[in-house]
Amino acid sequence: MDHTETMTRYIAAFIQSLVEAGLKDVVISPGSRSTPLAMTCAEHPEVNHWVNLDERSAGFFALGIAKEQQLPVALICTSGTAAANYYPAIVEAYYSRIPLVVLTADRPHELRDTGAPQAIEQIKLYGDYVKWFHDLALPEAQPSMLNYAARTAARAVHEAEHGNSGPVHINIPLREPLVPDFTLSELWKPLAIEPPLTGKRKLGEQEVEWLLKQLDGKHNGLLVVGPQTDPALGASVDELATKCNLPVLADPLSGIRAGQHGKANIIETYDAILKSKRLKEALRPDFIIRFGAMPISKAYLQWLQTLDETNQIVVESEAGYREPSGTQTTFLYGDSTNLCEMLSSSMDEQHKSSGEWLEKWQSMNRTAKDFLLTKSDRELNEGHVVSELSSLMPEESILFAGNSMPIRDVDTFFMTTPKNIAIMANRGGNGIDGVTSAALGAGVYGKPVTLLIGDLSFFHDMNGLMAAKQYGLNLTVVLINNDGGGIFSYLPQAAHPKHFQSLFETPMGLDFKKAVELYDGSYHSVDNWDAFDNAVRASYHGEGLHVVEVRTNKADNVSFHKAKWKTIEEMLIQQLEG
């Protein structure tokens, strides 16, 4: 068997095993050394392959697909710095628990550390940001080596998606010639690699009894749902909250602000409420049970750090330590939905919170919510863009929020809705890189995607727009252009005008219409609510890329938010004392 046949059968066995393990999407960054991997994926009848020219964009594009599908997605690149450009997306995938299978082609061992072109050190390139690393052996033709390649691929998929999902890295050295021979017979024959059998980790009756004892005599509790992806959790949390009169503080990435389940106990405005020191004192809970990651709200985090005597229990589906507050915390590792169901059936009157406690939260939430949603008929502002979008977005769609101010405005202004709207963001590393690419990836299977993004984040990933042009992907971009980093205006740095603009605010003065036209997109600049509504509605009925630019003023936006928070505090304190 010559080199080409050996390499072809070896790589074919590897790719076939990925497919049999459940992987169906591969994002390819073009290059030479990765030719056998790229061409084999393009040739395989059951692989959806996406070509993305910029490796950083490709990494986030794959992450977006995996985030929406909740399935592993593979990345393929050539050797050298191409692999280094995947790093930001891999960091994000690691912290946000998104399954990626990263396949980096490499020079063969004899060309490593010799000054050969495009040969960098790729062994454990991503350090601790991958769950598993393996340096694949060079292709060999023996049945045992074909089986080895297949088993390694199957393991890579399993490692990526089970336990806490995350990225894995397989480094694949290849010798020239690199072009496979697809005329060979039986390249896609079934391999029957048996996957490991796994299931959800569930807490037992003993752990539930322990938890109930911890809650004895504690009546004013809270359920907190941070970023998480279990679609069944909303109904289970609602059942538990209803039975026990518990308020539910629901992060926008919790998945429970939208959908058909009950939401009467959900407190969407807790971030605004907890900005008040007096209200924080009046609302101190006896216990907190949290599902998912720490919520986005900084006000909640700071409040939590003052609750020294409050029992906090964090429920994680698998091992993990996502608790940045530094407060005393008990971790329970088990399926959140199952635990809610067990608690609902086990809790009795002695564990039930008072109706007055729940009504206090609900009453404050109603007052804050009504005030937050009251908007000017004429002036556009960043907060009400969110509430307007929630009414305009179609069923079964995705709102992808950029970091910095957009996700915080979603936290404040996106209220509960019966629509099935998935809210997504890159909140693992919380960076501004790759947001557009991730949003495009989330929409490859046809769900309408609305991207709410600031001008700096949009600029940072303009290369990502190539995927929209290349594949005719539909994306509505609501571009909030306040000419720079608006979130810095809320931070102490803003009090130092000498360096503030050049180091933090960083105004760019760019005409984004030209960038949108470069990628064959449709562009609209709007300056009133009617124009905004019409442009957004039209984008949902059109195809391709649609950018609706909303120009705002940073100073006005800061004043708008601070005025809202101050008035809410005054109204709620009066309500509390009256």
TrEMBL record:
<comment type="function">
    <text>Catalyzes the thiamine diphosphate-dependent decarboxylation of 2-oxoglutarate and the subsequent addition of the resulting succinic semialdehyde-thiamine pyrophosphate anion to isochorismate to yield 2-succinyl-5-enolpyruvyl-6-hydroxy-3-cyclohexene-1-carboxylate (SEPHCHC).</text>
</comment>
<keyword id="KW-0808">Transferase</keyword>
<keyword id="KW-0464">Manganese</keyword>
<dbReference type="Pfam" id="PF02775">
    <property type="entry name" value="TPP_enzyme_C"/>
</dbReference>
<feature type="domain" description="Thiamine pyrophosphate enzyme N-terminal TPP-binding">
    <location>
        <begin position="12"/>
        <end position="124"/>
    </location>
</feature>
<dbReference type="Pfam" id="PF16582">
    <property type="entry name" value="TPP_enzyme_M_2"/>
</dbReference>
<comment type="pathway">
    <text>Quinol/quinone metabolism; 1,4-dihydroxy-2-naphthoate biosynthesis; 1,4-dihydroxy-2-naphthoate from chorismate: step 2/7.</text>
</comment>
<dbReference type="InterPro" id="IPR012001">
    <property type="entry name" value="Thiamin_PyroP_enz_TPP-bd_dom"/>
</dbReference>
<dbReference type="InterPro" id="IPR004433">
    <property type="entry name" value="MenaQ_synth_MenD"/>
</dbReference>
<feature type="domain" description="Menaquinone biosynthesis protein MenD middle">
    <location>
        <begin position="219"/>
        <end position="400"/>
    </location>
</feature>
<protein>
    <recommendedName>
        <fullName>2-succinyl-5-enolpyruvyl-6-hydroxy-3-cyclohexene-1-carboxylate synthase</fullName>
        <ecNumber>2.2.1.9</ecNumber>
    </recommendedName>
</protein>
<dbReference type="GO" id="GO:0070204">
    <property type="term" value="F:2-succinyl-5-enolpyruvyl-6-hydroxy-3-cyclohexene-1-carboxylic-acid synthase activity"/>
</dbReference>
<dbReference type="InterPro" id="IPR029061">
    <property type="entry name" value="THDP-binding"/>
</dbReference>
<dbReference type="InterPro" id="IPR011766">
    <property type="entry name" value="TPP_enzyme_TPP-bd"/>
</dbReference>
<keyword id="KW-0786">Thiamine pyrophosphate</keyword>
<dbReference type="Pfam" id="PF02776">
    <property type="entry name" value="TPP_enzyme_N"/>
</dbReference>
<feature type="domain" description="Thiamine pyrophosphate enzyme TPP-binding">
    <location>
        <begin position="437"/>
        <end position="550"/>
    </location>
</feature>
<keyword id="KW-0479">Metal-binding</keyword>
<comment type="pathway">
    <text>Quinol/quinone metabolism; menaquinone biosynthesis.</text>
</comment>
<keyword id="KW-0460">Magnesium</keyword>
<comment type="subunit">
    <text>Homodimer.</text>
</comment>
<keyword id="KW-0474">Menaquinone biosynthesis</keyword>
<comment type="similarity">
    <text>Belongs to the TPP enzyme family. MenD subfamily.</text>
</comment>
<dbReference type="InterPro" id="IPR032264">
    <property type="entry name" value="MenD_middle"/>
</dbReference>
